[in-house]
Task: structure prediction
Amino acid sequence: MKNLKLLFYKEIKGSFNLKGSYILSLAFFSISIILLPIGVGPNKGFISSIAPGLIWVSIILTSLLSLNNIFYEDFNDGTLDLYKISHLSIVEICFIKAFVHWISNFLPLIIVTPILSIFLDFPPNLLVYLVFSLILGTPSLSFIGILGSSLTLSLKQHNLLIPLIIFPLFIPILIFGSGAISSLMYIGFEDLFLRQVSILTGLSGLSIALCPFACSYILNVNYD
Amino acid sequence: MKELNVSNLACYRTGNKIFSDISFNLKEGDVCLLSGSNGSGKTTLLRVLAGLIPISYGSIEYNNMNSLDDNFYILGHRLGIKEEVTPYEDLLFWSSIYDYKNFENVLERVGLKNYKSLKCKYLSQGQKQRLAISRLLVSKKSIWLLDEPLSSLDKEGISLLKELIDEHNKFGGITVISSHNDFLKKYDFHINMDK
Result:
C-alpha cells in the first residue's frame, strides 16, 4: 500500500508538470466545444439537441491525444524497466497509470464541461446529470486506453494504431453516455437515465477490474 | 554460498541469433566482465539476465531459483530520469520503494549533494549517470548488472564506480559489467561476446 501511494504521488506529479498532456487535452476539448456551434450555425434548438453527443464525442476524441503517452514515455526513457525490476506489481502500476490518466486528463475536462456547455446551449437543469454521467463513464476510457497503450508500446506507428484498437471498445460508452443525457432531454424520463448510467457504471467497473490485469499480461509478453 | 549459474544461454530475436552458448558460474564477490564489439549482444545478455527479455535457450539459476528473482538491479543505457524532478525527489522515491533510510548520504557519496534541488533537466549526462548509480546503491541488491556504466562519467566518477564495485563485491555481491574499458583491471570471469 505504501508503494502504491508513492507511485501515485510520483505519477500525479509527473502528469501535472509542464510537459503534461492535460493542458493540450483541455485546450483541444475547449476549442472543439467552442468551434462546434460556430460550425453548425445559429440554429439554437439544433445545437442544444445534439449537445450530449457532441460533448461525449469531444471527450473521446480528446482522450486520444493522451492515451498513447500512458506507457510510451516511461518505456522510452527506461522508467518502465525500473518499475519492472522493483518490488512494484505490474498490475498495480497499470492501475495507477490509468487512474492518474483519468485524474489528469478527464477530471479537468469534467470540471470545465459545465462552463463550456453554455456554448452548446445545454439546459442548465441537466448539468448535474451530465457531470454525473461523465464521472461514472470516463474512467472506463482511461482503463480501456491502457490496453491500447500497452499493446502498441514498442511500435513506431503507435499513434495511429491506438485509435484503431480502442475505438470499437469506446462505442458502448459513447452510446450509453450520450444516450443517458438524451433520454432526460427528450423523454424527461429519469428511470431511463438511471438505467443507462447503471450500464455506464458497470462498464467502468468492469474495465477497472479487468483492464489492469490484461494490461499487465500484455506488458509481460509485449515488452521488448 | 550463493552462486549465479548461467548455462548454455542463447537469445534469438525474430529468428536472428543475438548470442548463444553463454555459460558462466559466479560466486559471491565475483566480477564478470562482458566485452565485445557493438552489436555483439552485451546489452541483450544483461537484459536477459534481468528477465526483461525472454530466454530462448539455456538456464539462469541463482540460489536454487530459476531466475535472479528479486536479487538484482540493472543499470542500463536508459536511465529513467524524469526532467522535471530533482535528484532528491528521485532518490527519495526509489529509496522509499527499496526501504533505504539514509539516502541523503548516498547523494553525497555520488557527488550530487550540491545539486539535489536542481531539476534533472539541468544536470549533465555524467550527473544523471551518477544519479542512476545512486539508485543502484539504495536498491541493496546482491547482483549488479551494469551496462556500459562508464558512459559520460569523468575520471572522478569512474574511480567512484570502481570503489563502489570493490565494496559491493567485498561484502559478497556479484557484479556483471559490460564495458569497452578495462577500468577494473581485475575481474574473475571474462566473456568475449565476439567469440
About this structure: The longest helix of chain A spans residues 190-221. The CA atoms of residues 68 and 159 of chain A lie 6 Å apart. Chain A touches chain B through 24 residues (CB under 8 Å).
